[in-house]
Every structure is written in structure tokens, then in C-alpha cells.
Design a protein that fits this description.
InterPro entries: Daa-tRNA_deacyls_DTD (IPR003732), DTD-like_sf (IPR023509). Homodimer. A motif (Gly-cisPro motif, important for rejection of L-amino acids) lies at residues 138-139. This protein has one domain (2-85, 92-133): D-tyrosyl-trna(Tyr) Deacylase, Chain: A. Strand 1 (2-15) and strand 2 form a beta hairpin. It starts with a strand and ends with a strand. The protein is an alpha/beta fold. The protein contains three helices and eight strands.
């Protein structure tokens, strides 16, 4: 499981011009699920998303995680994140979990994050064509692996 996280001042996700989720300061996490992923990766990723220290403390150092900063989380499924781009000029998607495996795992991740950060987790719609808007704060972007 991979998550491309971006510290944002705001982010939102729309499907067919309908706003499905939006956050103020916090993290946008684009999540890709691989065939070998399971519950262990879900729980590890939830902990990493909420605890990874990318927010400034009183001294201006990145020492605070999302849960400590009071920020929000926007989780967006993105199978292209785990594409095979090692050769050629076209991505291969055999490295991504099929939707029937990935959707339940993504929903478990969403549930875990909502349990750990009850008032601050938004999402898009799994498998939909989504329009994601964001203002990257920093810019601060990291690739996490669970």
C-alpha cells in the first residue's frame, strides 16, 4: 500500500461537479493498493497517515503529526499510484490490486482513519472519475509505504 501525502492549506474532491469531500489545513492522501496488501497494511497506513510528522511545532520544525496538529485528512483512492512505470512509454496496471480487492481495503483504511480522527476525515468515491483540487503547503509531499 502506497500513499502520496501532501500537506495542504485546503483540498477538495468532486465527481460530476458534486463536492464529495473538502478539508481545510491537513493532508491529502492519494492511496494505491497492491495485490499483496491486507489488514496489516491498512492498520499500519492509518497509523502513519495520522502520525507522520509533517506539521510545524512551535520552533518551526516538522515535529507534529496530523492528529497533533488538529488538521483534517482527505483520502482519495488512486490505482495509478501503484502502476508499473519501469519500462516503455505506457504504464502497466498489473501491480495494482483489482477493484474487488482494493475497494474493501480502502474502505477499511477510511474507517480506521475515521475512528482515530473522528471529526476530520473526508473522501471521494472509489472508482469514480474524480477532480481533486489542492493547495500544497510548502510544498510538502512524501510517499509512504505500509
Amino acid at each position: 500500500m502506497l500513499a502520496l501525502i501532501q500537506r495542504v492549506s485546503h483540498a477538495s474532491v468532486r465527481v460530476d461537479d458534486e463536492l464529495l469531500g473538502g478539508i481545510g489545513p491537513g493532508l491529502l492522501a492519494l492511496v494505491g493498493i497492491e495485490p499483496a496488501d491486507g489488514e496489516a497494511q491498512v492498520e499500519r497506513m492509518a497509523q502513519r497517515l495520522l502520525g507522520y510528522r509533517v506539521f510545524a511545532d512551535a520552533q518551526g520544525r516538522m515535529n507534529l503529526g496530523l492528529a497533533d496538529s488538529g488538521g483534517q485528512l482527505l483520502l482519495v483512492s488512486q490505482f495509478t499510484l501503484v502502476a508499473d512505470t519501469a519500462s516503455g512509454m505506457r504504464p502497466g496496471f498489473s501491480t495494482a490490486a483489482p477493484p474487488e480487492q482494493a475497494e474493501p481495503l480502502f474502505n477499511q483504511l477510511l474507517d480506521s482513519c475515521r475512528r482515530l480522527l473522528p471529526a476530520g476525515v473526508e473522501t471521494g468515491r472509489f472508482g469514480a472519475h474524480m477532480v481533486v483540487s489542492l493547495a500544497n503547503d510548502g510544498p510538502v509531499t512524501f510517499l509512504l509505504r505500509a
